[in-house]
């Protein structure tokens, strides 16, 4: 019972915040809505017995990536977005149709799959040791590649954003 | 109603579509980036839900990788936005069309 | 289950009231302490020894006019002090302030939430303090606020990295993220003996995270008007004030938990307890109270240490500050991780 209430509250919060991100005209307010959406998702991860991922989500996404976004918006002094949707001459109807088809297709695929059991109550999730052991044994090579990727992104970011 | 895994996946699909809506309909580069982050997060939610269903931690490790790659991509993308802004003084994506035609 | 919820609610109320009571006490400590360090008297007119000075401050804050600048954002501007205050308060939930209390046959753990990801939770919510600063600076629609916010948040994110890296050493030593386990593992040897460098790096990074001197250039009183809270007056400013002191208390509590044994008894207290006739073995109410007292004393010492350092050292210049964080603290932190891992691998420790 508690799980149902928590799921619905967090789900509605994440959808409302996601709509706020895409529909609001001010980019900084969109960023604040995105932060709210990330918090709702972190709550859902805790519901799904993945507290480590919830903490990582908050540390990396909310604590670092969104700070970067807000920083850039402050540096570039981006105020309001004057034209919310573009004044392009092409009709927007195909885009709405595509979106509707996309969501319809995804939901029908989900309904066609049968999930044989509900959320197990007695399962307490994987301990951090399990995840860490797997990360450093089976997925060691992608892990090292990831650190290389971060190094490249750091160097690239500094070079791109430097004043000439 | 008891919450099933399909509920989480439907929520993930909904968030993904809202992200696609943001990318298609908005003209501000930074809001497009934020919609992309929203799409990546919806995929993370689907992965965590499947990890719980299959009782295997592999999908959680994949989420770890997705989060890290999203961080690298956001940093690089925002650096590009900054240098673009220095050239053109705008973040409107309609005006970044110099390679066109 | 309902009883557990009730016990947690009581713990939350007790801890939050204690934290919020600490804020006026800290105001008094800071003002009198700074005065004595500067060879003057400080506030001594309101109440005996000036103890009612915080009350006078609170009354002043409540009755002052609450200005809102002309083009400030309508709802982000009032939200920013709250965004600054909440993470500082919530972070305290994972810190254990005592062992267990046997209450009518039920064992209550003296910690609001014994998370198995305790340290990660604290790092996660500690990093949210940046948003209060950023949103305050941006929504004030003021050049000085924006500049102050940018500098302050750049400093906070740089030193947050050093903070996280310095925490890897203790995590490797104790093998767990849970703060209660970490305190339990310190019953023979406090953390500072095995991880002295991690302690030093954490201490310096904690100063920078709380925007305290010698790292408080963002609030640089003589330089940026008042930095990111230039446009805030009355109760909103009081919230920023409270947020800063709460952050201070949380950092002190964290330092004493990770490196000084948390609620483990201060050596010498056991003999004092025996002399007073309080039973120590097995656990008893007296022992629990002594443990809470030890925790409070250690935290109080570090709070005093923060205040002491503030009025002793001059301020860092901004480029010196950033160079120190990136070029000195982070490599030292990584070196600490390397040495700790080697020591654990070759079983030197």
Number of strands of chain B: 0
**Strand residue percentage of chain A:** under 5%
CATH domain fold name of the largest domain in chain A: Four Helix Bundle (Hemerythrin (Met), subunit A)
Strand element count of chain A? 0
Order of helices and strands of chain A: HHHHHH
The low-confidence runs of chain B, each spanning 5 or more residues with pLDDT under 50, are: none
Rg of chain B over CA atoms, rounded to whole Å, is: 17 Å
* Approximate helicity band of chain A: over 70%
- What is the CATH first-level class name of the domain at 28-92 in chain B? Mainly Alpha
Unreliable stretches of chain A? none
CATH class label of the largest domain in chain A: Mainly Alpha
Mean pLDDT of chain B: 89
Could you say what the CATH architecture of the largest domain in chain A is? Up-down Bundle
SSE ordering of chain B: HHH
**Helical region count of chain A?**
6
Derived from helix and strand composition plus strand pairing, the structural class of chain A reads mainly alpha
User: What is the mean pLDDT of chain A?
Assistant: 86
Share of helix among residues of chain B? over 70%
Question: What features would you describe in this structure?
Answer:
The complex is a heterotrimer of chains A (164), B (101) and C (349). By secondary structure, chain A is mostly helical. Chain A has 2 domains: 1-80, Up-down Bundle (Four Helix Bundle (Hemerythrin (Met), subunit A)), CATH 1.20.120.1200; 126-164. Chain A is built from 6 helices and no strands. In chain A, α1 (2-23) runs antiparallel to α2 (27-47) and α2 runs antiparallel to α3 (51-75). Chain A is globular. Chain A starts with a helix and ends with a helix. Chain B is mostly helical and 101 residues long. Chain B is elongated and about 50 Å long. The mean pLDDT of chain B is 89. Chain C has one domain. Chain C has helices at residues 2-37, 53-63, 76-90, 118-126, 129-139, 143-174, 179-185, 191-194, 196-209, 234-259, 269-276, 285-310, 318-345, and strands at 100-103, 106-109. In chain C, α2 (53-63) crosses α10 and α3 (76-90) runs parallel beside α10. Chain C is globular. Chain C starts with a helix and ends with a helix. The chains are: A mainly alpha (164), B mainly alpha (101), C mainly alpha (349). Chains in contact: A-B, A-C. Chains A and B meet through α1, α2, α3, α4 and α5 of A and α1, α2 and α3 of B.
